Every structure is written in C-alpha cells, then in structure tokens.
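Structure request: Glycosyltransferase subfamily 4-like N-terminal domain-containing protein, Hymenobacter nivis.
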Amino acid sequence: MSMVFSNKILLLIPNLGLGGAQRVFHDHSVELAKHYAITEAVFNLEGGDLYPSGNPVVSLDVSGGGGPLDKLQNFQRRVSGLRQLRERLRPAIVISHLEGADYVNLLSGGPGKTILCVHGSKLHDANIRGPVGWLRKKVLIPMLYRRAARIVTVSTGIREELVRGMGLPAHKIQVINNFFDVELIRQQADALVPAPFAELANQGPVLVTSGRLSREKNLLALLDVFQQVRRQLPTCRLLIIGQGEEYLAMLARCQALGLAVYTSEQAPAEASQAAVLFAGFQANPHAFIAKATLFVLPSLNEGFPMALGEAMVCGLPVVAADCPTGPREILSPATPEPAQPLRHAETAPYGVLLPVISNIATYAADVTTWSQTLTTLLLNPIEQDRLREQARHRMNDFSRQHIAGQWLRLVEEVRQS
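Returned structure:
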C-alpha cells in the first residue's frame, strides 16, 4: 500500500517588509504554489506586505523590540504560535527564511519536516557581534541547525562557512542560488520613470545602486568614492534607490562632502543642480536602474546579491566589492576566493571586482582604487558594451525555470523521505 504525503507547505519569515530575503521568499512562494498548497507565516505584519504573492498569509501577531525579558517572552510566543499553526495545518514541510525564523522553526516542533534557507554570511556579518553574536555563531547555529532535515544556502561561500566554520554536516547542506525572472525584469526595465529621473541619462554618466540603506551596504564609503569621481567627471551623478536606517547619515555625509542632494520631497526642477539623487523605495527599481550607466555594489557583506543580478539582467555593466559572499560567485564563478583581501581592480568575466572599503589602514587607497576604476570605465564605452553583453549572458544561468526546478526536487525529496 502506497503512502500518502501531505501537499501542504508552510513558509516562515519574520516579516514581509522591504528586503532581499523577502523578495526571494515571495518568489519561492509563487513557484511552489504551482505544485503545493502554500501558506505563508510571519511574526507580524507591522511592515506591511511589500511583495504579495497571492497565497494565504497568517500572522503570529508577535511584535519585536523591547528589553531582554520582552524579547525572550516574544520568542516563546512565536514558538508557541508556530506550533499551534503547524498542528492546525499539518504541513509536510516548514521552510524558514532568516535566522530568527529558523530558530522558531526548529524549536516549535509539531508536524512538518524543517528546511532552512540561509541568505547571508554568518561569519562576516558585522551585526553578529558581542556576547549575543558569539552565542549565535558558536552555540545556537552549530547546535540547532543540525536538527533541520536540510539547509539551503544561497551561495557556495555561505555553505563553506556553515561546514568549515561552524561544523555543520555537509550532507545536509545544499547550494541553490536565487533566481531572476529575466523576462519580467527586462519588461519592467523598459517602463517610463517620472521626472526628474527620466532626464538623468541625457545630462551625463550615472552611477546607480539599489537596496536597503543599511550599514552593511557601505554606502557612506560609496559617497567618498563618488566625490573623487566628480573631481574628474563633474557631470557624473549618483542615483540611490531604496530606503533604510542609514538615510540621515548619508544626507549628512553628502553635506560634509559638498555634494548637492535631491530627495523625493523636493520639486523635480531642483534635481538639475544635484550630484546625488535619492529615489527612495520604488516598486519597480528596474526601470530606474536601466537608465543608468554603471551599477555599483560597495557592500561589506552579502548573501547572494539580488540587486547586482537584477542590474545585470537590465544590461548594466556592474562593479562590486569582492565581499563575502556572492559577488565573486556571480561575476567570476571559476575563480576561488583570494587568500588575501583584494586590494586592486580585478576585471572578471562578467563585471569588475574591487576591494571592500572597510580597513582603516587601506581606506584611502581603496577609495582611490574605486574612483579611478569607475572613472576609467565611465570614459570607455567600448568596455561598457562588452561588460553589458557579458552581464546579460551570465544571468541566463539563474533563470526562474532552472533554479525553481532545484527547489522542487529538494522539496519532493524531503517530503517523501
């Protein structure tokens, strides 16, 4: 007599607000719903649902924040709430995204095997620090993550961290890169953008970056780089797409560097004198990105940088910090991570890799390396065209169909094991 396996899958993430992990969560939800009955669960909906999938969403209605006791009580409520939801839905699998959700997934128990999707570096994330960071890296992750049926990392570098750095069993960990809806992104890239952004490309070269304005994106260092670029190319502009906690610090840095700013609160006519333009959150960032000359990613660390890949789909030449993890895997997949941090510009097969601007001792030299590389590339349309074509070609390796197929095979293997 054949066994009957549940067709229900529960997806868990802390929130559905702005972020790369949330976008990937949405993509997985949409794809898996073509084959399974999907329910999404979140700790709370305080940040809204910025990437709605159309699948049912259940909120555990547990807020975050507060002191240590509040956080402990909230964690216990999340674990209890997820356990009740699992008992009610009786899913075959519970897939969690982001570390907070992973702990709740692993400790809640109840029906459903656990799969964890790890989006970012654990060893290089500056937010994982102090006594709590030590506890997470040395105790919680090594002890708890091995309870999962499977662990998926979005890059090879993260898998190596978990296996070699944290001692997790290699046979449980599989790399599945994020996918890009190439056709949709290219359609969105052709959309019109409002003034004053539509006119930018006609006024000189444009550098663009996109993503959450957070510390790990290292955007304050990018402003230092851009000031030097402007000395050589006074008509160059920097377009920043996104919102986040570093916004006010970035405005202050622009003022200190003498870089005139345009924000969405100003009248469009005021943009003509601005060097740095803040576009804020955009539902369709691809239309803005496609109007630029070069995409830049100065991050301190990544997981598998979606914004970098999306810019490549849009046909932009890309320049990225050789940070852990993801940029090298995308831009130079055949080369290993260097033994020593990169201190020069490396022209990779699909873009340009540059030093991570974080070391105080090399900060000035790294900023100069970035500014010289960007200036040279902005003045070389032939090289831009070559990198543009290479970028488009590379992104075919991350198609929705190819990557979604890997997830479906994994889910079915775990479901029937």
